Every structure is written in structure tokens, then in C-alpha cells.
Amino acid sequence: MSCCVDVHFWRQSVVLMAVGFYAMSTGFVLSFPSVLNPVLLSPTSTIKVTNDQASWITSFYGIGGVFGFLTVPGIMQKYGRKVAQTAMNISLIIGFIMLIIAKDVGTLYAARCIQGIALSGVILAPIILAEYTHPKRRGYFITLKNAALATGCLLCHTLVLICTWQEIAGISIALNVVSILLTFLWPESPAYYAMVGRYDECDKSFIYLNGDTPKARKMLKDLVLAQTERREKEETDRNIQKFLVIIKKFVRKDFLKPFFNVTLLTIIIDSGGRYYNLAYIVQIITEITGNNSVAIYCSIGLDFLTVVACCTSSYIIRKLPRRSLLFSFGYTSVALMLSISVIVFLKSYTSTNFNVPWLTPTIILLNSFIFTLGVIPVYSTVSGELFPLEHRGSGSMASGIIFTLLYAITMKCTPIMMDKTGIAGTYGIYGLCVAICLVILQFILTETKDKTLQEIEDEIKGIERNKTAGLQDRETFTIIQKC
Q: What confidence score (pLDDT) does residue 242 get?
């Protein structure tokens, strides 16, 4: 039995490794502007750009993300998870090749925009891992994906010391190629096969990944039964105009509830500094301390602590419920952000002596560590768990558009806020945003730890599966036996 468990663990781990290499490349993409822009702005650059153009090169990644979220989730639902995973890797490869051969600013814009298509992986990668992995492994597998992304950021910032930006782009391309090769080793997702009614292939894929134990058969039976019921219901709606069906889908409770949860979690992630720290940490620390050297050390320390936190959180998320992890670490982060605001305010606007150069930077790094340790893993995991199977395409698209819009707004508004309200006001406003979202989530967030995706879906829909399953057990087992 232990041998079988090991075999199925490693089969699921191949999926993790493929997604992990993709996530590492995404880390390169997120950090690449810090490597590319200084070269472009230098007097010796062959491509002459202004500061405004350099900022647009960075921003076009988010613009491409909108297109990605409008297309890739649909590809995932229609053609499967493997095709979507491959498409995201290919968009990164094409973008990096275009960056390497670019001779003008327009090509740089296009390259970053094409890479933005893969930004949909922020939502889709957790969904893929959630569908392929056992409920007890799901949380820490998704968290290890976050660790891979953080490792990509750290590698990109470190390689700039010994490599040119073209060589760094080449390394990232190699990561995408490995990810695509590993993707060819998976079967297609059992959830996808069940959704499209290919039950024999669903059976084979599910058993390959999870084994043929009574518990695995129970999970398979629930999956097939739920999708059989959904497909039968859709048959009765065929006479309704397609447009009305789509509108009805977006206002259903089982869509709106997970969408609202994921949106609030996205606001928390953006306000907590997940992305503006990557872009503006040097500027923030320099403004606080007046010392650029301290700021550089802090940026390196931030990447290192992020990797450590992601690796550590893969263990923590296995042990603690999602809600406990989110609220305990979330409110701790709020307290640290507000303390940063108060300390900077007192130092700037009063005569109180806070002449401790490393105090505020240390709190900022501690807050980033706490946030990455407890809040980001919950966001990544829950965003891949909450949407019912029939809504995973549309839910990913809608949540992804919200994600890209909030990402763009945060990246654009943070420098303005720092200019208008100072570091104290910026951290104070963001801290309050996180606190408000946490309070709302306390009343609406569903606990998902150790539950199958079907159990989570049934809870969101208000279905008592044990009551309905008994009426159709014979029919369901007949379907499974035919597979």
C-alpha cells in the first residue's frame, strides 16, 4: 500500500513540477523590469527610451493580462488544462524571444503584452493543482508553487550580478521548455473529462492519479454524479436563449459567493504589498532611511525572506485551517502596517526621536515575511478551490480581470500615494483596506481544508450530497463500471 501511495504522490508531483517551473519563469517576468529598465535608460543603450516609456514597458504586462484572462480560461474549459498550461508557457517564451531581438520600443511593448497573457496563471495554476492533487496535499502543493515563483524573483535579481539581461531571458526560456515537457507527462484532468461527459477517460485519469481505493472511488463517484446532474439540467435549458443562460450564470449564488470571496482576497493581496514591494521597495526604504545602500540590502533580504516564508508555509498550511491561518496572520500584518505608519508619522511630523535606521525597514521586512507566510498561501489555495467546476472558466476570467485591474491600479497609485500622503499615509490606507476585507471575510469565507473539491462545491451550492447520492447510486456505479 505504501508503494502505491508513493507512486500516486510522485504522479501528482510531476504536475507540481511542471507548474513550478512555469511559476519560476513568472517570477523572472515580474522581476525583469528591474533588470531591463536600468539597461534601457543607460546612455549606452542601443534602444533609447524615456522614463515614461520605461514605465509603460512594465505596465504592458498588466494590459496583456486582461487579454489573457479573457481567453485562457475559455481555452482551459474547452480544450483542457494541459493545453492552457502549454499556451501560458508559450506566451512567455515568445515574449522573451521578442525582448532579446527587439530593436525598438514598440517591440518591447508587444513582448511584455504577449507575456501578460500568462498572467492568467495566477488564478489558473492553483485551479490546475487543486484538480490534480489529493485534498490533503492540495494546500502545500499550491504553496510550493508560490515558493517557486519567489525563487524565480530571487534568481532574477541575483543573476543580474553575473549575467546580461539577454542571458537571464534565455534561462527563463529554458524553464518554460522544461515545464512544457513535463506537462506532456500528465494525463488530462479528471475534472475536465467529467465536465465534458467523457466518463471513461475520467475514470482512467482519476485512478492513475489517485489509485483505486474505496475512498478514491467515492471521490470519483461524487465527481461523476455532480457533473451528470449538471449536464442533465443543461439539457433542459437548451431552449432558452444562450445569452440569457450566460447572464443567469453570472448572477447565480454559486458563482457570486466564490467570486466575492476571491475579490476580497485579491484586494488584501494587493494592499498588503505582494506586488508593490517588488517594484517600489528600494524607493520606500530610501525615503524612510535616506540611505540607498540600506534599500538595496532590504530588496535582497525581501526576496530571500519571501522564499523562506513560502517554503515554511507549505508545512503550516497542511496543519492549520485556512480561516485560522488567514485571520491570525492577516490581523498581525495589519498591526505591523499600522505601526509602520505611526512610526514614520512620528519621525516625520513630531520631535520624537526615532533615530534607529533599521527599525522601520525591519518591520517592513517582518510584515512581508508574515504576509507571505500566512496570507498569500490562503489566497493562492482558496482561489483554486472555491469555484464550482462549471464556473472555473468564467470564474477565473472574472476574477482574473479584477486581479489585473487591481494590480494596475495599485502599481499606478502607490507612487502617487507616497507623493501625496507620504509613506505613513500609504501604509495607513493600505492597512485599513486589509482590515476591512478581513472583517467581511470572517462572515462569508468557507473553510476548505482537507475537503474534496466536490464537497466544497456542494457546500457552496447548499447540496447535501449524502441525501441525493443514495437515489442514484445504482446509476452512478453503472456509469463507473462502464468506464
A: 57
Q: What's the pLDDT band for 480 if we cut at 50, 70, 90? A: very low
pLDDT, one tens digit per residue, over 255-273 is 888 899 999 999 999 899 8
Q: What is the mean pLDDT of the segment spanning 42-56?
A: 79
To which H or E segment does residue 474 belong? helix 473-482
In a shared domain, residues 327 and 181: no
Treating both helix axes as pointing N-terminal to C-terminal, what angle do 121-132 and 135-159 enclose, rounded to 10 degrees? 140
- Please give the DSSP secondary-structure letter assigned to residue 237: T
Q: Could you tell me which of 20, 271, 11, 265 has the C-alpha nearest to residue 121? A: 20
Query: Which residues lie below 8 Å from residue 234, measured CB to CB, with a gap of 6+?
Result: none
CATH of the domain at 245: 1.20.1250.20
- The single-letter DSSP state of residue 163 is S
Task: Choose among 309, 314, 320: nearest CA to 372.
Answer: 309
> Are 449 and 382 within 8 A, CB to CB?
no
pLDDT at 30 exceeding the cut of 80: yes
Neighbours of 452 (CB within 10 A): 18
Number of structural domains the chain divides into: 2
- pLDDT at position 185 is 92
Q: Do residues 49 and 175 make contact, with C-beta atoms less than 8 angstroms apart?
A: no
Residues of the chain with pLDDT > 90: what percent? 23
pLDDT of residue 239: 52
* Measured distance CA(78)–CA(313) in Å, rounded: 33
> Which of residues 195 and 412 earns the better pLDDT score?
195
d(CA 220, CA 194): 9
164 and 274 both lie in a single domain:
no
pTM of the model: 0.75
Q: Which amino acid, one-letter code, is at 375?
A: V
Set of cell numbers at residue 166: 539577454
Do both 146 and 264 map to the same domain? no
Whether the per-residue pLDDT at 474 is higher than 50: the answer is no
Q: Phi and psi of 121, rounded to 5°?
A: -65, -20
- Is the domain of 48 the same as that of 175? yes
Q: Which domain holds residue 348?
A: 238-451
Tell me the CA distances in angstroms from 221 to 373, 391, 443, one per residue in order.
36, 20, 32
Task: Supply φ then ψ for residue 197, to 5 degrees.
Answer: 85, 15
Contacts by residues 159-163 (CB-CB < 8 Å, ≥ 24 positions apart): 160/34, 160/35
Longest dimension (CA), the chain: 79
